[in-house]
Amino acid sequence: MRIPSIPGFDQEALEKYFKNTGMSFVGKVGSLFIKMLVSIAVARYLSKANLGIITGGITYIYLFSALATLGLDQFIVKELHEFPQNRDRILGTSFWMKIFAGLGCIPVIWLMYKIYPAHGTPYGYVLIFSIIGVVQAFNVIDSYFQSEVKSKYIMQVQVIGTLVSAAIKLVLIYLKMPLIAFVYAYALDFVFLAIGYFLTYNRAGRNIFSWVYNGELAKKLLHYSWPLIISGIMVSLYMKIDQLMVQNISGVNEAGAYATVATLSEAWNFIPTVIITTLFPAILNARRDDMNRYKKRIQNLYDLMIYLSLPAALIITFTSHLIYKVYTPEYAYAAPTLSVHIWSGVFVFLGAANSQYLIAEGYVKLTFWRTGFGAIVNIVLNLILIPKMGMMGAAIATLIAYASSAFFVLLIPKVNRQGVMMLRALFLISLFQKIIKR
């Protein structure tokens, strides 16, 4: 399979890198399409209020996901690359660390729910969703296959899991089951995924029961991962706090409508990650060999992010009222909010590219401060705008927060050049310069 040539990048190198991520991309696109159809069907079946209630529980658990995962995933891959002979010890240690973290999150979630509950969502629903933090421990198997560059196995598990999940939800709709059935169904999505990982790993002579826990390795992993735990909590707040605040300020009906906006707007946010994973090895090679080429490739990457996100934002802005035709009429008033919220994706794309640059240059702490800044902006603006404008206020707050986070680097002298490069991409200046040169 050939991919289109991208200016500034070697085509042969791109083909090689794409093979490592192409299957994952295909699987995610297929899963996305299925999930979108099912989410529309579920929204049509459930009222706005019921959708808001169930989304509140899911959002609440997402806020604690970084604590449950311990920020270990990339370090598991790194350890497996460096010490493949210690596979069972690495996987066993990280697995049990995640199990204990997931169990430890349950009382923490209960305490936080007492302090700042999701109004309208019973704690019983939140407790059911809490099992997600435990079963996600099986995601260490995903890290193993990443280290082996065998994305096709993960893609197979995810696609099959998506199909099973879709079938269950459609059956529940057909049988006209109550809301609690959908709560269990959403929680079981992660259980089925864990079962798929388990069965896939145990092929070809591998055995999950051979995994062993090592206390010294656990200390080492936690030493490296604790900054990512804090950063992950900030990301969770930054990305999801708006949904919880809409529910608590404007009620479950507004939260249900806003949930459809967030689902449609954020569905594409995996794309920059896949593309950057494909292109960044070539960018790092340029950094090693030719700094001028390295800078050009960074600019080309920012340009590419805009070429992908800007048309999508424009199309959805002018077709949002048509998109909401597939929902029931009670959701139709959310269309203008989608037209605003979708523009936050432009800054998600730029921010994802810039984050890779900061990591490559060793400025990991800056990614933390930038995300924290975005989270603070988001919370403050939500508190101001949601009481006055409802979910439209949340969309505006999200857009401003994402833009503020992406261009936070402009305030840091040693990396503010990157902010200028992103502005050149955003306002199509570099595109016009390329056209003029031709």
Automatic annotation (TrEMBL):
Membrane topology qualifier: Multi-pass membrane protein
Residue ranges of the TM segments: 25-46, 52-75, 95-116, 122-141, 153-175, 181-200, 221-239, 267-284, 304-327, 333-354, 366-386, 392-412
Domain of life: Bacteria
GO cellular component: plasma membrane
Signal peptide bounds: none
Localization terms from the record: Cell membrane
Keywords: Cell membrane, Membrane, Transmembrane, Transmembrane helix
InterPro entries: Poly_Biosynth_Transport
Entry-linked PANTHER family: O-ANTIGEN TRANSPORTER-RELATED, PST FAMILY PREDICTED COLANIC ACID TRANSPORTER
Record protein name field: Flippase
UniProt source species: Mucilaginibacter terrigena
